[in-house]
Amino acid sequence: PVELWRRPIGPGWSSFAVRGDLVYTQEQRGDDEVVSCYRLSTGEPVWRHRDAARFWEAGSGAGPRATPTLSHGRVYTFGATGILNALDARDGAVVWSRNVVSDTGAKVPGWGFASSPLVVGEVVFVAAASQLVAYDLASGNPRWNGPVRGGSFSSPHLLTIDGVAQVLLMGRDGATSVVPADGTRLWGHPWPGLPIVQPAVVAGGDLLISTAGNMGALGMRRIAVAHGPGGWAAEERWTSMGLKPYFNDFVVHKGHAFGFDGSILACIDIADGTRKWKGGRYGNGQLVLLADQDLLLVLSEEGELALVGATPDQFTELARFPAIEGKTWNHPVLVGDV
Q1: What pLDDT digit, counting tens, does each position of 182-200 carry?
Q2: Which of 3, 12, 77, 293 could bridge 63 with an S-S bond, Cβ 3.0-4.6 Å?
């Protein structure tokens, strides 16, 4: 890999949203929570929006957690203390701003609000812990609040099942899917825990979900969701301890799921959940699937980039390169060959 540029940036867990030559993220700058825009080609700052807010937690440090969402010329951001912004993507001008804590009475969870905003039609959704909250996209006025369902650090997730668009949210009591327009519950699947990682849709329309406890991940489960004459139903196909993502993403490729089992990469067969291999220590890292090359691009907790084969036969690390120094839990983003 050839380094194009390098720039210091404030702490936070946020990843990057990219459109054209502009890159958007969130970071902490002293006592201000900042939404920032940088030039992809040069790393030069384009604009910054500041809110007087700071979140800090001993194990995870300071800064915002969620990744910005881009939609129709705006950037939507959700800060760790509950500030929801709609900003002009060109210059950062405020279109509207809401305080989700004030609107809902929700308490800031232990690791801060981590939900990335989800835009569906004329509504933007965030998860205030495990309470789904909907705002009008144009005005920022609240539309509806879902019930409080315990703790969660997951984000609302748009799905289409049996031709029906729906928003799924993982909560402490399990998975719940609702109608985007008004929050009417469609179906639920119980699995107590503390969910963090997003679900995934697999071939045939089944879902892979995961959850965690206070001390780590609990496993992965495949569920089948169907709409019949008696209504919606969600059925467990299997639960596996062979892959236990905590706050680290997993990917699905050619009938297998790849991700972190603790601090070690692992691969399971999504047909039955059996583990195919486990190997390679990358700490609490993150990964991106390079599907056309059958590769995983892995970012280790200590800032190393690695290429690992996305094949079920065995663990194979093909390359490793020191990219940045210091602990990173942020998710990398691939844009073309950058």
Answers
A1: 999 999 999 999 999 999 9
A2: 12
